[in-house]
Amino acid sequence: MNRLSIDVTCEVEWPLPPPHGDAQAFVERVLEAAAERIGVQGEVSVLFVDDDAIHELNRTYRQVDRPTDVLSFPMNEGEALADPDDVEPMLGDIVVSVDRAREQAEAYGHSLEREVAFLLVHGFLHLNGYDHEDEAGEREMFGLQEEILQGIGLARS
């Protein structure tokens, strides 16, 4: 049973080759693992863009005048998370820069597949109230990210 309803839009060419050539299937695999691990369900929208588009979003919504790798727009920011008995609460939107993912995969020496998955999980955890504003939060969030990625075979190389 799927825990999530996921809408995937690519404003740029999907960057992963076969067997990951289907954006919807890849995103579902990654985010379903994350949802299962933290025990949530709901609706998520994922948008893949270039650096120019994410730069504009970052400037508009965060007042940060530069591109970034991933942005999350939680629907319940600052409020209690949705009731788990709701059929499909809207969790929010995740925006990933494919340009930034490519650069970071090369810089960190791992696959583009792992970097895109990392950014998806990172954004998803933000949608669900996780943050890395302090050392304890960072340890928890980054530990969860690694656990989820290892669980789908994308451990750090």
Describe the structure.
- GO terms for molecular function: metalloendopeptidase activity; RNA endonuclease activity; zinc ion binding.
- Its cofactor is Zn(2+).
- This protein has 157 residues and is an alpha/beta fold.
- It has a single domain (4-151), classed as Metalloproteases ("zincins"), catalytic domain (Collagenase (Catalytic Domain), 3-Layer(aba) Sandwich), CATH 3.40.390.
- It is built from 5 helices and 4 strands; from the N terminus they run βαβαββααα.
- It has helices at 23-38, 51-62, 98-108, 112-127, 135-151; strands at 4-10, 42-49, 70-74, 90-97.
- It has a 4-stranded mixed sheet.
- Helix 3 crosses helix 4 (112-127).
- The termini are far apart.
- The model is unreliable at 78-82 (pLDDT under 50).
Instruction: Describe the largest sheet.
Output: 4 strands, mixed
Any idea what the radius of gyration is? 15 Å
Q: Give me the CATH fold name.
A: Collagenase (Catalytic Domain)
Shape: globular
Q: Look at the structure and name the CATH superfamily.
A: Metalloproteases ("zincins"), catalytic domain
Structural class, from helix and strand content? alpha/beta
The tally of strands reads 4
Number of helices: 5
Unreliable stretches, pLDDT < 50, 5 or more residues? 78-82
CATH classification class: Alpha Beta
Helix content: 40-55%
Mean pLDDT: 91
Strand order of the largest sheet: 1-2-4-3
What portion of residues belong to β-strands? 15-25%
What CATH architecture label applies?
A: 3-Layer(aba) Sandwich
- N-to-C CA distance: 31 Å
The count of domains is 1
Q: How is the quaternary structure best described?
A: single chain
Give the SSE order as H and E letters: EHEHEEHHH
